[in-house]
Amino acid sequence: MQRKLIWLLPFLCFAGYRLPAQPLQTFPLSKVTLLDGPFLRAQQVDLQYILSLDPDRLLAPFLKDAGIPPLKENYGNWESGGLDGHTAGHYLSALSTMYASTGNGECLQRLDYMLEWLDSCQQKNGNGYVGGVPNGHALWKEISEGNPKAVSKRWVPLYNIHKLYAGLFHAYTYAGSEKALDILTRLTEWFFQLTAPLTDDQIQEMLKVEHGGMNEVLAQVGQITGEKKYLDLAVRMSHRSLLDPLMQKKVTLEGLHANTQIPKVAGFKFIADAKGDRDWDDASAFFWKTVTDQWTVSIGGNSVKEHFHPARDFSSAIQLNEGPETCNTYNMLHLTEYLYLSDPQTVYMDYYEKALFNHILSSQHPTKGGFVYFTPMRPRHYRVYSQPQETFWCCVGTGMENHAKYGQMIYAHDEQSMYVNLFIASQLDWKDKGIQITQNTRFPYSNKTALSFQLQEPTRLDLKIRVPEWANPQEIRVSIGKRKMKDVPIAGGYIVLSREWRDEDEVELEFPMHIGLEYLPDGSSWASIKYGPVVLAAISDSTGLDSLFASGSRWGHIARGPYYPIEESPRVVSVQKDFSARIKPFDKEKLEFKMPALIRPKKYKNLILRPFFEIHEARYILYWPVDGGG
Ligand SMILES: [Zn+2]
Predict the structure, then answer these.
(1) Cα of 325 to ligand 1 centre, how many Å?
(2) Each residue's pLDDT tens digit, 547-585
(3) C-alpha distances in angstroms, 105 versus 67, 79, 499?
(4) Ligand 1 centroid, distance to 373 Cα (angstroms)
(5) Contact partners, residue 44, CB within 8 Å, separation at least 6
């Protein structure tokens, strides 16, 4: 029982300060159960991947650093190349969220097992520290003695330990582990002591090196423990060279390593809410808007070769095999969640849907498991997948987490209202109100969704269903029971159904879907084709898929098979920039479409457009060069 209650803690008042209640809250992940569909299947495949990993091997770097003989050897790849231990932090997060989502007992057992060992390592170290950074003690000593630049001699050590901080935080908030909170609190106090002798300038020097969301997690620990000094440290650990220009609404992202920046901003936003700081809040929202407007492609991802390329020139995005990185979208979704809950605009959930359906869902092999790092936009290129015992990239860590928490943002609520934001088959148990809601849908393979109520007693409630940006509000149909509504009440981007609900009430919604186009943000003649929110792509062939399942080599995450010439790629020929009306259904049940009259060379005219998230082990065309497209 305690496990369920713990999640409420962050919303309560603590001795030091309190986080202002957000207008909306999510439901505990344990109260949202996925039903049959692509998301449940992805969750199950992820569970197998998670369980195939060996906790003893993930723990080895921590034991070694604490001077305890390891039970087994480290894994290879990034786990023994300097970033030792980063995966264990993600593993705690993945086990915690997977346990919350599915109730899988093996996940909880493994979580407890990992925490026991991490606790032992921390006790052995004796100063509150626990970590996998090789020879970490020497590094931390150098920093505390006034050399913050020491972080640049290692492979992003603060980024590395942030994964453990976040994993412990998730073990506490999602799985209710008090032990995790104890370890986390001691680890936070260690970091407080470590950085206490440093000046603000020295800390800013240290923050030049990638450090994940250290500011965020320090503020979170401050929030849980009520220790204001941790919130103050979180402020000190916020990178001013990013924050200051954002506060002045200046866009200075070009050339920056993208995934270094996004977690910093999630931290700015968390701190903004904790302190009630409007300037930090605006800066976070401005960053989000800038990235989604100027750097985001149709699948919801951003960056090329991990960096923000020139905003007015996406040619590198089209040419290179290192397209959007999955970690970036993981972090953008996290930031989006914060922004949406404090300012419930549907634009945030429109992005969330786009990125979840098209990037995140597509980034795991649907049967064999394995995660994607880069998703090339280059026509006729392909993606490679991780292997559980071989590859330990950042995107493996975030990948394990991504598919474990699909229930996170389907619904939200305040006292009076219940929000349905995503059309994903699921069941919600709103315990406090004695309400269960089942969402039955085959979306996106059907444009309908049905919400049925199971109530202990009649309950007055505003049911708010997101009007997605891809749907024409005039075409939306709503029925309650057998009765079709004549006028669909829409306010603030939501269909609002206010009434006293009774047991077995059912609401059916229909959102007609249409073909749409999304050109690259730089205005160049490259179009991505969508059906509703679903990005459609075409398989060109399955040749030359070198190292499709990556080995443990340092650069195995890049699809290094041959480039096929772009000038020989299938292209669209159309004098009209909007050629969507000429794309015809081929098999609508499967969301398959064709456009033979538009494609050149003619030999490609029978290419089939299908959901990008279904395309695996193949070369594909996701963005089409448009000749005569203006
Ligand atoms: Zn990554």
Answers:
(1) 6
(2) 999 999 989 999 999 999 999 999 999 999 999 999 999
(3) 31, 26, 39
(4) 6
(5) none
Quote the ligand 1 centre to 395 CA distance (angstroms).
4
Crossing angle, helix 326-342 and helix 394-402, to 10 degrees? 50
> Tokens at residue 182, please?
């104890």
Whole-model pTM over 0.85: yes
The alpha carbon of 386 and the centre of ligand 1 are apart by a number of angstroms equal to 12
**Residue-wise pLDDT tens digits, 140-173:** 999 999 999 999 999 999 999 999 999 999 999 9
Neighbour-count burial for 5-32, b at 16+ CB within 10 Å, e otherwise: ebbeebeeebeebebeebebbbbbbbbb
CA distance 25 to 432: 13
Cβ-based neighbour number of residue 220 at 10 Å: 27
Burial environment of residue 271 by CB neighbours within 10 A (0 to 12, 13 to 18, 19 or more): buried
The alpha carbon of 442 and the centre of ligand 1 are apart by a number of angstroms equal to: 30
Mapping DSSP to helix (H, G, I), strand (E, B) and coil, where does residue 567 land?
Answer: helix
User: What share of residues in the chain are helix, strand, coil (percent, to 5)?
Assistant: 45, 20, 40
Buried/exposed 167-181: b ≥16 CB within 10 Å, e otherwise: bbbbbbbbbbbebbb
